[in-house]
User: What shape does this take?
Amino acid sequence: MNNLLIFFAIPVATIILSIILETLIKCPFKVAGIAFSIFLITAFALGGTVEWLVLAIAYTIISFISAYLTYMFENKQEENSPSNSSVVRNCRRFR
Assistant: This one.
């Protein structure tokens, strides 16, 4: 059961939360930083072994990749939208 949690549940939850945070924050580096801080605190709370620290780094990489892919997908959608006027583009920067 523990292996299922480490290799399936936590990575899937990381991907989902990274996608949600990316749509709110719009910066993959910030999303990865938030994920890394959460995983690092959790790793030290669970004992601080090398295995937990390696998992924290691996989950952070997964978080960054999913946030970056979401960022790229959103930018591609905005380029292809019919309301791509200069006024709309300028307003999107300030959200």
